[in-house]
Amino acid sequence: NLSARLQVVADYVEHGARLADIGSDHAYLPCYLAQNNRIDYAVAGEIVKGPYLNAVSEVSKLGLKETIDVRLGDGLEVLTAKDNIDTITIAGVGGPLIVHILEEGKQKEKRSGKETLILQPNINERIVREYLMNESYVIDAETIVEENAKRYEIIKATAVNDKVNYDEKDLLFGPFLKKKKSQVFLDKWKSEAKKYEYIIRQMEKADERNDEKINESTERLNLIKEMIK
Ligand code: SAM
User: Fold this and answer.
1) Atom 17 (ligand 1) nearest CA
2) Which residue, of 4, 16, 66, 90, has the greatest Cβ tally within 10 A?
3) ipTM
């Protein structure tokens, strides 16, 4: 059984996908998808030896070696053209690392830029959405879930030919999440508002005031307050 967080990621993967799961650790996600006949093929990429070996043993324990190839390496560098990947999942790492992996992969021609992306940043979802927008990806689904007192956002995006325009609220809150305003979403942003209030108070008390930073944070706080009011 998958965690609630990985279950959403799994549900977003289209049937018959050729998947690259990057930062796969135990390869739980591709294993679940393969066991349920949801994917044709998967590469499970891992940069660290221990998690890589966990993934190797999970895949062989479940007899899924035909469908899932576990590879040791950095980001998308483990992929080859022959893999014909059409879907990339990156879950459980920070937003900046997700962007870095996608950008490196593009520079090194390890992805075409047309793959479906399913991303679950642990922090800084905004930077992920901004990258998607700049890459002409449109977000077509989003979920926020709570698990073990932590909140996670899962974003599914597909490539389009047109220019994509998201405003600051779309980028920060998510175009779907901000409309739905689920309880988990409201809880998240109430707690973020408290953090910003605290940070702003500290910055105002500091010996060397940085007015620019204070203004930035105040602007952000006002957006949040407006969203949760
Ligand atoms: N994706 C799984 C999940 O969501 O449950 C595992 C998440 S785990 C917290 C993050 C994994 O990403 C770690 O095993 C880490 O070694 C791996 N990782 C970090 N940077 C990576 C990179 N550049 N390329 C491949 N894997 C990476």
Assistant:
1) 23
2) 90
3) 0.99
